[in-house]
Amino acid sequence: MTFEELCSFETLWNAYRRARRCKRSKGSTAAFEYSAIEELLILSKSLLQGKYQPDPLDAFLIYEPKKRLIQAPTFRDKVVQHAITDNIVYRELSRSFTLNTYAAQYGKGTHFGLEMLEKHLRTYFLRKKGAEEAARRSAGLPPKPIEEWDYANGAVIKGDIRHFFQSIDHERLKNALAERFTDRRLQELMWRYIDAVDGLALGHQTSHIYAVFFVHSIMHYVGEKLHLPLAGMYMDDWYVICPDMGTAREALSLLRKQFARLGLELNQKTNIFPLQNGIDFCGFHTYLTRTGKVVKKLRYSSIKRMKRRIRLWERQYAAGEISREKIMQSFQSWEAHAKHGDTRKLREEMRARLEASLARAENRRRQGGEPPPCQGIIERRTKRYGTVTFQSCKRKSGQAGREHTGKEVPQAGQ
Predict the structure, then answer these.
(1) Cα dist from 93 to 86, 96, 179, 192, whole Å
(2) Are 105 and 216 contacting, i.e. CB atoms less than 8 angstroms apart?
(3) Torsion sign over Cα 318, 320, 322, 323
(4) Fewer CB within 10 Å, N- or C-terminus of the chain?
């Protein structure tokens, strides 16, 4: 697609329809939609004339699953990012990604990464079992009885990149992207988003595909140079399955150098573990048993978080701040995620806990009288459990960050 085609009304219209999906109740989306045709015509003209400039980012903090600073673009900028990513950037960059490089790709999210981890563990077990049985046959020995199987022995490198998005060097990223995209006007448009903040802004759609592209060479190196294909990477979280501790230590030493060449540093969580301890990846702790069975248990932090949320729902429901339908929708989303592991008993226990909490809340509501109805779509949570806001007014850039931290949110060059 040429730059002129990218800036055409038709391309921007399709990008606008994708950007508004599941967000039409938000004030910023509704305001843009009110005069969408006029807005898109102005946007197309400014892009073609090179006068387009992104608006200041809206910074706010989230606390689930952990505290993060999100710097989100305006709806107008989201339309442009959809046009760039969906029509040019994604198609060009994703072609070079390995199968075991996940995130920011269609059909390659957390659940795909979890399925691939299960396949890697089964493959490791069957290869080790097949090699040892072949050696025993050559020596004229019978197969090992199942009681003596030890084919799940091995080592795993579990790694995590320190401050991943904030640590991505702009010049290294731009040089790598310039080799793929030669149109100067497109480059200038892409650089505007990259240079908006130090590192990459978590709220930008382009940031996620750029981040995956920035480190995708690591999985190529692991498979093609280290010859350890049973590996996977989801953004800054990665693992490599090795046959023994010696191989794992040597591989980790080499991988630290590869990350250093990219200007990245591994954090303190990076370590080597016995394979029998399992692998914490994509929200689940996955184990390979001695007999070759793969067991996927939901991460403990996810269970703990849901228990806290149920206690919060009980208080909110008793006070009339949230409806039962809203609670069940959220819980069913958690259940759908948990179903990807061996969690039948856990799901039954959590559903029983939720029903008991709602029953207690119902009793308190009857004893204290009928509470006032829920106020529209505004839901507020405590700082401990995160913030969810649906607002018709637009915050000024950095306003939420100042409210929570008491200081200015860092912008590029500050």
Answers:
(1) 11, 6, 11, 19
(2) no
(3) positive
(4) C
Number of DSSP helices (H) and strands (E) in the chain, helices first: 16, 10
Q: How far apart are CA 297 and CA 188, in angstroms?
A: 46
SS3 297: strand
Residues 50-88: tens digit of each pLDDT: 999 999 998 888 887 778 888 889 999 999 999 999 999
Domain limits, the chain? 1-94+391-397, 96-297, 300-375
- For residue 206, pLDDT beyond 90: yes
Which one, of 106, 100, 107, lies nearest residue 239 by Cα?
Answer: 100
Query: Do 242 and 154 touch, CB atoms closer than 8 A?
Result: yes
Specify the pTM.
Answer: 0.85
> Could you report the per-residue pLDDT of 107-127, keeping only the tens digit for each?
999 999 999 999 999 999 999
Q: What's the mean per-residue pLDDT of the chain?
A: 89
Q: What is the mean pLDDT of residues 352-369?
A: 90
Residues 297, 303: contact at Cβ < 8 Å?
A: no
Closest CA to 347 of 311, 278, 312, 297: 297
Q: Which residue has the tokens 């795909």?
A: 112
Name the amino acid, one letter, at 81: Q
